[in-house]
Amino acid sequence: MRALQEVRDFILKHLEEPLPSLKELANKYGINEYKLKSGFNQLYHTSVFRFLTEERLKRGCILIENTELPLQMVTKLSGFKNVSHFSNAFKKRYGIKPSAYRKYHRENNN
Q1: Most CB contacts within 10 A, which of 13, 22, 58, 96?
Q2: How large is the average pLDDT for residues 15-19?
C-alpha cells in the first residue's frame, strides 16, 4: 500500500512531465506491474493513467481560474503535449472549452 501511495505522490509531483511506463514505475517502487495496476485501481478507484489525466485537468482548471497565462503555457504546465489535446480533454471532462471556461469564470467572479 505504501508503494502505491508513493506512486501517487510521484505522479502528483511530476504532472508536467511524461509518465514513465508502468513497468518502470513498478520497478522504481519495488512492486510488479500487475500489483501496481490492480492495487492502484483498488485503492484509488481509477487507473494510473486516468488518475494522471484527471490531476492534469485539475491543474489546468486551477491555472485557468487563477492566472492570465496563455492556454499554451497552461497546457505545458498541466503536462499535455499540445493545446488541442488539452482542450479536447478539458471539454470532455468539464463540458466547456478552456477558453470559454476562462471567459465565463472572469465574468462571474468580478
Answers
A1: 22
A2: 94
